[in-house]
Amino acid sequence: MKTNGLRRLNTLYAGFAIMGSALFLSSAPAQAAGDLLVAPTRIVLDGQRGTEVILNNIGSETATYRISLELRRMTAEGKLQDVSPEEANSFEKAAKGMIRYAPRRVTLPPNQPQAIRLGVRPPKDLADGEYRAHLLFRAIPKARSVTEQASTSGGFTIALTPIYGVTIPVIIRQGNLQATAGIANARVETSDNGQAFAFDLSRTGDRSTYGEIRVLKQGESEPILVARGIAIYPEVPSRKVTLPVPAEIAAKLTGPISVEYYEPDNAGGGLITKSQMVLR
Amino acid sequence: MSKFIKAAVASSVLAASVMGANAAHAATASADARANILEQVTVTNTSDLDFATIVTGATAGNVVVDSAGTVTCAAALVCSGTTTAAGFTVAGTTGQTVDIDADASVTLTNAGGNAMVATLTESVTTLSISGVAATDVFSVGGSLAVGANQADGAYLGNFDVTVNYQ
To answer: How far apart are CA A79 and CA A70, in angstroms?
Structure first.
């Protein structure tokens, strides 16, 4: 009986070993300097005064990363547009003014994580509302070596370096804020990039809503489309949500459907709104 | 009754044998194990935006590298070599929707102060992470405006690409 159990354990371990090696292989592609990991991908401070964000160098070379606080405004198309400091309104200025973070520049060897501390110091007379800024993480590119630049003999060479990174929202809520949302005008759109499921997401109240969109077809229990991380921010009363879908899913998007908007699991997972409609 | 005890003993032996080495820990006091699992995102750069080699002529022209990396060369110019679009892979929570934003254009300058402008186009502006690395990708192509008798030299330029979480 005992040997039986052990044997079973051995096969179990063998299974884990195989899984482990497969994971290792898949996580080690050729990577350029500046590749990065950021967690979490969204910060909501509802009363708390601070948190931290993990930044990890997942590239194969040492890289220097810069962390900065940016302002973004949502457009009617649902894009996040850069807002320069001169264009900032009072809410955006207040958000930028009360968020403290450090360090702002960090050099990391490969696979070295660093915690970026984030604190909020709201002024005493802060008006109720939702304040938001976006934390941008990106690598500073290395200067090209002189030999690389001088390798041209007649004609010309071009070196275009992408500076790439991630922005995550930092949201501070002051006071007891409410919001409701609505979904309307669902349709399937076709563009150069293929097909997309689109609808209008509207919002009323004094804060943003954030969550997961599930599209269910009448008579089916499993959603045919799930999109996480859909927000509508207070600066817009309505936005368009465009979700690219592969052809096989687009083909299913006909007839009566239900579009449902749920809070994320860590915020209770409650239904924000849902709407039944018929797709042509 | 005795049957019940036998069954209980048998099952505990079974449990102990299956647990194997872990059985020793059963005697220790309980301890809290805490882990804060955070949703993560990773962005990796897989290729550069490369216009390869261009030979200029007396007439201005555009060299277009589309987001698939295919080159279209103006008649006035000669293009040679392998071109690529800038490629990126995004990994994160399955089903997560992210926005992709690249600079609309980039100015390239050489040591002599001569400049060229490339307009940039991203392959997608919204990406839904599928969990399959081969499909969770986007690319940035460009159209480079090469002037008539564009001055020689090594032209350098930086452009921003961000993955925005809502």
So the answer is: 15
In A, which residues are within 8 Å of B110 by CB distance? 156
Judge contact between A245 and A253, C-beta under 8 A: yes
Under 8 Å between Cβ of A98 and A125: no
Q: Residue A5 and residue B160: Cβ atoms within 8 Å?
A: no
Residues from chain A contacting residue B124 (CB–CB below 8 Å): 193, 244
Burial A263-273 (b: 16+ CB within 10 A, else e): ebeeeeeeebb
Three-state DSSP class for A178? coil
- Residue B44's nearest CA partner among A166, A39, A64, A62 is A166
Cβ–Cβ under 8 Å, residues A177 and A205: yes
Q: What is the pLDDT of residues A99-142, one digit of tens each?
A: 999 999 999 999 999 999 999 998 888 999 999 999 999 988 77
Best of B45, B80, B125 to mutate (most A CBs within 10 Å, chain A): B45
Nearest CB to B17 within list A1, A58, A160: A1
- Could you give the maximum distance between any two Cα atoms of chain A, in Å? 80
Complex ipTM:
0.81
Q: From CA B50, how far away is CA B82, in angstroms rounded?
A: 8
The pTM of this model reads: 0.79
Interface contact B162-A157, CB threshold 8 A: no
Q: Are A106 and B132 in contact, with CB atoms under 8 Å apart?
A: no
Longest dimension (CA), chain B: 103
- DSSP state letter for B151: P
